[in-house]
Design a protein that fits this description.
182 residues; alpha/beta; three-stranded antiparallel sheet; 9 strands; 24% helix; globular; binds 1-O-pyrophosphono-5-O-phosphono-alpha-D-ribofuranose
Length: 182
């Protein structure tokens, strides 16, 4: 059987843990934006599953949009090269914006995205990141909402890929080095 699970060394966060963490993040966002209608921008592709679960854990009014960037080639480390592949459609001027990312590795992508969004002159800008990999940061980086910290392993699943695969794994797991060294 062509099962993804055979390629996973260990599960770091399973579906129940992710659901519970997102429930808490949703409550925080509900409180922080109680009298606002934030524009929530999911970063494609990796952020699409986190975005879809997070917005359903939020009960205030929101408007949703997506930004597609590319920062990596097919490999496993950051090139730091970022391109906008799909721009936001909603006018962000004087809006409260929340960026939703799956993972912060070097921090270069999120920094680029924040600088890009600030150019639209939003009223406020916050970031919500499912996974933070502090050992991999190449620049000083801060977020407003974080799901979990991970070590310096190669993690896949729940939107995160290796060569476009494993995004549909429902858990976050460590990819076996056998896969990217063979
Ligand atoms: C991943 C992830 C972040 C970025 C983080 O995207 O979704 O956007 O890398 O890395 P950094 O902190 O080192 O910049 P990727 O370029 O792999 O594209 P994808 O979301 O389409 O998988």
């Amino acid at each position: 059987m062509n099962s993804m699970n055979c390629d996973i060394l260990s599960v770091l966060f399973d579906e129940a843990q992710i659901r519970e963490r997102i429930r808490i993040l949703g409550e925080q966002i509900d409180r922080d934006y109680a009298d606002k209608t934030p524009v929530i921008i999911g970063i494609l592709k990796g952020g699409f599953i986190f975005m879809s679960d997070l917005v359903r854990a939020i009960s205030i009014h929101t408007e949703l949009d997506f930004l597609a960037i590319s920062s990596y080639g097919a490999g496993t480390s950051s090139s730091g090269v970022v391109k906008i592949r799909k721009d936001v459609d909603i006018e962000l001027f004087e809006r409260d914006v929340i960026i939703v990312e799956d993972i912060v590795d070097s921090g270069l992508s999120l920094q680029y995205i924040k600088d890009y969004i600030w150019k639209h002159r939003p009223a406020s800008l916050r970031t919500c990141v499912l996974l933070d990999k502090p050992a991999a940061h190449k620049i000083e980086t801060q977020f407003d909402y974080v799901g979990f910290e991970v070590g310096n392993e190669f993690v896949v699943g729940y939107g995160l890929d290796y060569n476009e695969k494993y995004r549909n794994l429902p858990d976050v797991g460590v990819l076996s080095p056998r896969i990217y060294t063979e």
